[in-house]
Design a protein that fits this description.
The chain is α+β, with helices and mostly antiparallel strands and 154 residues long. The protein contains one helix and six strands. The strands form two sheets. Strands 1-4-5-6 form a four-stranded antiparallel β-sheet, with no helix packed on it. It has a two-stranded antiparallel sheet with strand order 2-3.
Length: 154
């Protein structure tokens, strides 16, 4: 049985050469597709992505600073409030039209779901990123059309 010993320096150099070669090939592919000359077309270059994120916060105030919990007979003072929201972003991006001048379109829609809903928890008319109604209750969920961009490339 023959044992081979490869030095760490040689391993690092061979790994580096492989990674550099792959990055170089990827860069060549990107160069070909750059600019308006590489436009695939409005429909052919389109993409749709969906992202979901959670946001959670605990806010703590000190001394006379604080938050008010809306009550039927006024309000109650508290030093703490919590927020927990799940947000979703749906984004559509078209490709660029072919020709000397290319046009593209981006449209995004947003949706938020309030996971923390109690008046005593989200005190003060809503916490960070939590919408409330006029009575101080958390809005369970909301959606809106966000970004709509028209892109131009020459």
């Amino acid at each position: 049985m023959i044992q081979q010993h490869i030095r760490p320096t040689a391993q690092g150099l061979s790994l580096g050469a492989c990674l550099f070669g792959q990055a170089w090939a990827a860069e060549d592919d990107r160069r070909e597709a750059r600019g308006q000359a590489g436009a695939k077309g409005f429909v052919e270059g389109q993409s749709l992505s969906l992202r979901t994120r959670n946001f959670a916060a605990l806010e703590q105030a000190q001394d006379s600073n604080g938050f008010r919990i809306p009550k039927e007979d006024g309000s109650e003072f508290t030093h703490n409030r919590r927020t927990w929201v799940q947000g979703t972003l749906l984004k559509y991006s078209s490709g660029y039209t072919r020709g000397t001048v290319g046009f593209g379109l981006d449209v995004a829609g947003y949706h938020a779901l309030s996971l923390e809903r109690g008046k005593g928890v989200i005190a003060g008319g809503g916490g960070n990123r939590t919408l409330t109604d006029s009575d101080g209750n958390a809005v369970d969920e909301w959606s809106k059309l966000g970004i709509a961009n028209l892109r131009l490339r020459v």
